[in-house]
Design brief:
- The protein is α+β, with helices and mostly antiparallel strands and 133 residues long.
- The chain has a single domain, classed as Roll (Thiol Ester Dehydrase, Chain A), CATH 3.10.129.10.
- Helix content is 18%, strand content 38%.
- The protein is built from 2 helices and 5 strands, in the order E-H-E-E-E-E-H.
- A 5-stranded antiparallel sheet has the order 1-3-4-5-2.
- The longest helix is centred in the N-terminal third of the chain and has 16 residues.
Length: 133
């Protein structure tokens, strides 16, 4: 953990509550921490009038190395792809110099009333482009 503050990076130490009986972090905890890191980035988006709701369309995780209690972990969020109504986020989970996991989270923008897909707002699309990997 380098201590440099970036809005797309969240650094934590793995808490005991996330550890399974084998001493590794629960699989679901990787998603929980990745979503928290994504929320930390998302709060910096530009204000948009009549902003759509965003729903998870898909998520996937590739595990490379099991994290353990009190391991330092860095969650780095980038944008893998910006579609018409969707955005794909890539979250790298690292401990020290080792890659622990790669998580993909795909959101789709939907109309808040009808829950039908809508186009990403232009301001949001431009902001997301700054995080393309």
């Amino acid at each position: 953990m380098d201590g440099i503050k970036r809005e797309n990076v969240t650094e934590i130490r793995i808490p005991f509550r996330d550890i399974d009986m084998h001493g590794h972090m629960h699989n679901a905890a990787y998603y929980a921490h990745a979503e928290a890191a994504l929320s930390n980035l998302w709060r910096h988006r530009p204000a948009v009038e009549h902003e759509p709701a965003y729903l998870v369309r898909r998520s996937a995780c590739i595990f490379h190395r099991g994290l353990r209690f009190d391991d330092p972990a860095r969650f780095t969020v980038t944008v893998a792809k910006v579609g018409g109504s969707s955005v794909s986020f890539a979250v790298r989970v690292e401990t020290g110099e080792a890659l622990a996991a790669e998580i993909e989270i795909v959101w789709v923008a939907v109309d808040r009333g009808r829950h039908q897909p809508v186009q990403l707002p232009a301001a949001t699309r431009e902001w997301l482009a700054g995080y393309l990997s």
